[in-house]
Amino acid sequence: MSNIHPTAVIEDGAVIGGEVTIGPHAIVLRNVTIGPNCRIHAGAVIGDLPQDLAFQPAETFVHIGANCVIREHVTIHRGTKPGTATVIGDGCYLMANSHLGHNVRLGTRVIVANGTMLGGYVEVDDGVFISGNVLLHQFVRVGRLAMLSGGCGIGKDVPPFCTTVGLERNRIGGLNTIGMRRAGLSSAERLQVKRAFTLLYRSQLNVSQALERMRQEFVDGPAVEIVTFVSASRRGICPMRDGIGDQDADPEV
């Protein structure tokens, strides 16, 4: 049985899974689907119209997976083109005052901290941690297990396993070694990621050359994931900050 506060507003057409808690003054509009065991805190607004000047009235959606937490005053807008959706995967945690624009897609176990704003069509892969007050430009992609530091502005793609530099724009700072260990990547897998990172960011190779070297060296494993992600980038990837220290040091590899 779900627990819905009497001051919450749920429009006809919303679908609420079992064991969902919806707090005071939260608003769930039509064409929203919320999976089981989610918690929606006070003042959240889910499924309102997209902030897109080209939007024409159409059936669009928000789909939220199971076991998600949506904190106070989070806003999640539905898709903008007919039949499209904003999608939040299982186990995501959206902290207070964060915003997901139309057609955003979050993978599983994504954490979005307070005040962060994701523009339309942003794609975030599994296990990403996005710190507070981060700004992500529309159409940006963030790879698996990346970590975005507080206050950064991101207008290019962030490759898997990377960290960004706080309070700067489009700057990679190193590797998310702690996140990789917590996610269960083995020492050999982390060493492979470090080698791929070195080719991409610390060699004298350009991106195309680095990708070709990685294709020659790796036939499987997380380095292949990096190659696939970077090869598909349309906005280009964030560059490395000049003079950055060895933030990707991992004493276990």
Describe this structure in words.
With 253 residues, the protein is α/β, with parallel strands linked by helices. It folds into two domains: 3-175, Hexapeptide repeat proteins (UDP N-Acetylglucosamine Acyltransferase, domain 1, 3 Solenoid); 180-231, Udp N-acetylglucosamine O-acyltransferase, Domain 2, CATH 1.20.1180. The chain is 17% helix and 24% strand. The strands form four sheets. An eight-stranded parallel β-sheet has the order 1-4-7-10-13-16-19-22, with no helix packed on it. Strands 2-5-8-11-14-17-20-23 form an eight-stranded parallel β-sheet, with no helix packed on it. Strands 3-6-9-12-15-18-21 form a seven-stranded parallel β-sheet, with no helix packed on it. It is elongated, with a radius of gyration of 19 Å.
Quaternary state, please?
single chain
Mean pLDDT across all amino acids: 96
Helical residue percent band: 10-25%
Low-pLDDT regions: none
Q: So, CATH architecture of the largest domain?
A: 3 Solenoid
Largest sheet: 8 strands, parallel
Distance between the termini: 48 Å
User: What is the CATH first-level class name of the largest domain?
Assistant: Mainly Beta
Rg over CA atoms, rounded to whole Å, is 19 Å
CATH topology of the largest domain, by name, is: UDP N-Acetylglucosamine Acyltransferase, domain 1
Question: What brief labels describe this structure?
Answer:
Udp N-acetylglucosamine O-acyltransferase, Domain 2, 2 domains, elongated, eight-stranded parallel β-sheet, UDP N-Acetylglucosamine Acyltransferase, domain 1, 24% strand, 253 residues, 25 strands, alpha/beta
